[in-house]
Amino acid sequence: MALDIHIVNVGKGNCTIADHPSGRLTMIDIDDSRAVTELEKAVRLLLKGVGVTNPVDYFATNFPNRSIFRFILSHPDMDHLSGIKALFTKAVISNFWDTEHDKQCDSWEGSPYDEEDWKFYQKLRKKEINGVTVLKNIRGASNHFWQEDGISILHPHPDLHALASERDEYDHVSHVVKLSHAGRSVLVCGDATKEAFEHMFNDPDVDMTADIIIAPGHGSKNHIHEDAIKSVGHKVTLVSVAENVDYDRDYYTKFGTVLTTKHVGNIRINIQDDGQVSLRTQSGDYSDQ
């Protein structure tokens, strides 16, 4: 059985879905705030553009009648949790991974996001949603379910909680997880900060090595800790980023191939039991990269 990883083109936000050899599904983040209408999709196709994908629709289409074993919220920013209420309404989800924080969202005027998603998230945090187990895992936490699924938790760490609160910057407590199978791995970085990467880099028990990295902070130069990123040893960088939003392509091309969702659309990684990796997008096959 293979490990199949889908990086959904949601625009500026993130949504990654892992179909594990165990048969369990993991979803990391969601953002439906930039979803487009069917007419807009048709126009984009005529113009040979990839367009933005609604992650709830994508899940329903690609994983019909499947439940989500765990939903991992990397951190409490709306471009990583927009659409969470719709997802939990339409899909059966057993486990919800959260982070320790004290973030508040009080102003919604002019926001592109739906306040109902934030309210639903608060209900999840308070364990008010029946049938959902809420976990706040930290670096090094282990359980036989995620060991079987090849998930390693590299971040968050309690040392960064105070910094996040003091600066009101909750990227500092973003999940960083490594998805592994057959000796190959993908590092999913959320919006982890330079400080988070420095903390991981200085921890001798953290193994950040991976074949593919999903760049932190949508590829922003402000999230690059050069020593830490270099230590990953990857040859492919994937960036979830919206049109008209800059990312540090010059930096990431030092390591090899760089693919962005705004250019190639949805991305699918397949890791076979023999370690063979294929990487396909809406615009082409990059398996030989």
Structural features, described:
With 289 residues, the protein is an alpha/beta fold. The chain has a single domain (3-285), classed as 4-Layer Sandwich (Metallo-beta-lactamase, Chain A), CATH 3.60.15. It is 24% helix and 24% strand. The chain has ten helices and 17 strands. The protein has helices at residues 38-46, 55-62, 84-90, 115-125, 144-148, 161-167, 194-201, 226-232, 249-252, 261-264; strands spanning 3-7, 16-19, 25-28, 30-31, 68-72, 81-82, 93-97, 133-135, 151-155, 176-181, 184-188, 212-214, 236-239, 257-260, 267-271, 277-281, 284-285. The strands form three sheets. It has a nine-stranded mixed β-sheet, with no helix packed on it. It has a six-stranded mixed β-sheet with strand order 9-10-11-12-13-14. Helix 7 packs across helix 8 (226-232). The longest helix is centred in the middle third of the chain and has 11 residues, at 115-125. The radius of gyration is 18 Å and the shape is globular. The model is unreliable at 36-40 (pLDDT under 50).
Quick structural gist:
The protein has 289 residues and is of the alpha/beta class. It contains 10 helices and 17 strands.
Topology:
Blueprint: E1 3-7, E2 16-19, E3 25-28, E4 30-31, H1 38-46, H2 55-62, E5 68-72, E6 81-82, H3 84-90, E7 93-97, H4 115-125, E8 133-135, H5 144-148, E9 151-155, H6 161-167, E10 176-181, E11 184-188, H7 194-201, E12 212-214, H8 226-232, E13 236-239, H9 249-252, E14 257-260, H10 261-264, E15 267-271, E16 277-281, E17 284-285
Parallel strand pairs: 3-5, 4-6, 5-7, 7-8, 11-12, 12-13, 13-14
Antiparallel strand pairs: 1-2, 1-15, 2-3, 9-10, 10-11, 15-16, 16-17
Helix pairs in contact: 7-8
